[in-house]
Amino acid sequence: MTARRRRLAWGGAILLALAPxxxxxxGFGQRYDLPVPLWLWATAAAAAVALSFAIIGVSVKASPxxxxxxxxxxxxxxxxxxxxxxxxxxxxxxxxVGLLGLVLAASLVGDQSPTRNLAPTFxxxxxxxxxxxxxxxxxxxxxxxxxxxxxxxxxxxxxGRRPPRLRYPAGLGVWPAVALFLxxxxxxxxxxxxxxxxxxxxxxxxYSALTWTGMAFFGRVTWLRHADPFATAFGVLxxxxxxxxxxxxxxxxxxxxVACAPRDGACLDCGACFERAAPARREWNLRSFGxxxxxxxxxxxxxxxxxxxxxxxxxxDGFTATPAWASVEGRLYAALVALGDARLTFIGTLGLIAxxxxxxxVYVAFARWMAWMGDDQLTTxxxxxxxxxxxxxxxxxxxxxxxxxxxxxxxxxxxxxxxxPFGFGWDLFGTARYRPDIGIVGxxxxxxxxxxxxVVGHVIAVYVAHxxxxxxxxxxxxxxxxQLPMLVLMVGYTVVSLWIIAQPIVExx
Amino acid sequence: xxxxxxWALFAAxxxxxxxxxxxxxxxxxxxxxxxDGLLPEGQRLLRVNQGDEVTLKWTTNRAFTLHLHGYDxxxxxxxxxxxxxxxxxxxxxxxxxxxxxxGTERTIGHLEVHPR
Lengths: 509, 116
What we know:
Number of strands of chain A: 4
Mean pLDDT of chain A: 90
Largest sheet of chain A: 4 strands, antiparallel
Strand content of chain B: over 45%
Largest sheet of chain B: 5 strands, mixed
CATH topology of chain B: Immunoglobulin-like
Largest interface: A-B, 20 and 24 residues
Number of helices of chain B: 1
Order of helices and strands of chain B: HEEEEEEEE
Strand content of chain A: under 5%
Number of domains of chain B: 1
Helix content of chain A: 55-70%
CATH class of chain B: Mainly Beta
Radius of gyration of chain A: 23 Å
Low-confidence stretches of chain B: none
Mean pLDDT of chain B: 84
Oligomer: heterodimer
Distance between the termini of chain A: 29 Å
Number of strands of chain B: 8
Helix content of chain B: 10-25%
């Protein structure tokens, strides 16, 4: 790197750090996506509408129960048993804790340029975007390797486990996770220090202190299930995934720290029960994509809010890069002179608050309409709880589409950073001079992948909602009628998602 | 009634794309004049096709460092001298053109490389 190039890198770093609003909408790094062409957008939207009616038309006859779908227990196979072995899980946790230590050390003592330090790329690209992909497409791996949970559990083993000092107020549901997730979204999308390594280091320290204090007061599993934003977010995404853990050990579930709501004598996706259950009573199942979203038994009103916040922040992230938002931002920017330098942060924060509220209002209005169309057999709040998870596939598909090239291009920085995580000029693996290949995937491949993902996500969403409706309504006619508003909502959501990827990306000023 | 043959349609579309791709890359020259760090309204979006030989010929009334993101190319622009930035538009995408100068860090336009 010549002196001039280094200056340029520093210039970029300072620009990212100080320019109000940063150079991009998302946490860190550039996106180079071309907008999806109009004809493709229109074709995909039309396909989404046509397929929706096709699904309702062929309509599934018998509706499976919440857990009555086909599953294949991987623990029946040697490979499955090997992968789920205690020692493999321990090794994965050790690696995870080691990576946390490395990222924290790099953020605090490493070079402070965002692209020369491992922390920003690791946190925003590999962990946040990459792990969301893994959770949705593979399974709830975060529940297995969460380094904060692992460290706390090891501490409990060493120092002896003490009973929780406070009883978690059941009425709080997952509201703490909702609040903390909003705070995290603000850091990801609005906070200007999000790409500065040291700021990320301080945030890791603060999050660790909060998490371990919460675990000490309320119990590790209770805290993770109700207050931890990441365990909750990855958990919601992983309900879509094709793997699950299932425990049929009544004794283990009875002693579970959180009420894991066993149904038909089995509890789903409770890692705590899985650890405790007798080996013969454990299952690690393959299931079809989206099957986990049929399990609506534990969806509380606060969980409805969490899912809506998760979906709306993902959409907000995309929306802030569109010309439409740039024009709104421009107008507010001119109008709010009095706020000076804080203007962009203020406008972004307003948007981040407005989006979840807007999503909530629209969703509740549609829930009311659905309840009415279903002859009021179910109340509006029941309808809201039953159908919120069926929106998750659309959000996952949009997330896949939105970050596809970002992950492939920015992710390549990790090849370079692996050799020099602190930016000290090391070359541990001989890859320190690697330059990301921006031609790794062509625009046409990106467009088709994005559009196919969104349409498939939409189809799965419609199917899930339809199955839930047939299960919950007394008669088929009411079930089908209740799905008309849901169909309108889902088509609207899908069309908005497609519209965003058909917009040219605009940088914040 | 003949049975529909989706693969035939698919093959036709694939062939059409191949044929389109076979059309040779073109040399593309853009004459760009920066005035106080701004490009004229009509030149803020430069569209080329994948594979084109692109030449960006710059003149400016003030000194800047120009940076084309993604391709990661840079040039030092000084008044009274025209500078040429030449490259093959190998990768598709929408890439910001940025200038860096004392007290200035700004996106002045975009280069869009469209697939053939």
